[in-house]
Design goal:
By secondary structure, this protein is of the alpha/beta class. It has two domains: about 170 residues, P-loop containing nucleotide triphosphate hydrolases (Rossmann fold); about 40 residues. Helices cover about 40% and strands about 10% of the residues. It is globular and about 50 Å long.
């Protein structure tokens, strides 16, 4: 952090474990309205600066859809947000990476335990078997790509093929720090959702939630003011 470095051992929650959302109310409302309408776009490109909660929103949407599989249900009709309680069965499965209806594509470690710089084509091809399987879970299946910017060219083309002919009840949530650079052919198959930098108060609340730090910590507040609306920068 700018005023005082966060200790290296400070644990930051992964977006799949974060059920609170700070800011982005318009974007959340757009996702909820689209799902409730029964005419949900099969792919969304969630773009904006790094560290503002794009992946948090993607997991929030995945959690809601998998917890409420019927868009016409009373629970969906009455919902005012995409919030799902942390102790909900679906939320707990997603947090532990054990939900059969959710696939996440993100950079993984190589054979030497070093994090790859890109998402590979082999990993992206997992979407084919994921959406083609009937055994794991019925109803909606969700794929989060975090981030689409990190797909190598072959992986991007593999994703494009399945976006061109999406399976029934499939939902793709593509996170991007630089949506203008995403392949035009992928962008053309997505509904775009642009997220803005967070307010300082939202940055403080989100950083406190992610780390367990006190929202009133002076160093946290100073770092948030200098972060340009990014939680990630606050915690650097």
């Amino acid at each position: 952090m700018s005023a005082r470095k966060v200790e290296a051992e400070l644990a930051v929650r992964h977006p799949r474990e974060t059920t609170a959302l700070f800011g982005h109310r318009e974007a959340e409302a757009a996702l909820l309205a689209a799902y409730r309408s029964g005419r949900m776009a099969h792919a969304w490109l969630i773009g904006g600066p790094q560290g503002i909660g794009k992946a948090t929103l993607a997991y929030r949407m995945a959690r809601f859809v998998l917890a409420h599989r019927d868009p016409s249900s009373a629970a969906v009709r009455a919902a005012t947000s995409l919030h799902v309680e942390p102790d909900d069965h679906v939320a707990r499965l997603i947090a532990s990476e054990a939900h059969g209806g959710l696939l996440t594509l993100e950079r993984s470690a190589n054979d030497k335990g070093v994090l790859r710089t890109v998402i590979t084509v082999d990993e992206t091809r997992e979407t084919i078997s994921f959406f083609g399987s009937t055994a794991a879970v019925e109803g909606w299946r969700v794929c989060i790509v975090d981030t689409v910017d990190e797909l190598n060219p072959n992986a991007a083309n593999a994703l494009l093929k399945i976006l061109e002919e999406p399976p029934q009840q499939s939902l793709f949530l593509l996170v991007s720090h630089a949506p203008a650079r995403v392949l035009a052919t992928i962008k053309s198959r997505c509904r775009r959702l642009a997220l803005r930098a967070l307010s300082t108060d939202d940055v403080i609340s989100a950083a406190a939630e992610a780390t367990g730090m006190a929202a009133g910590d002076p160093a946290l507040r100073d770092a948030a003011r200098a972060s340009e609306g990014s939680v990630a920068r606050t915690l650097m």
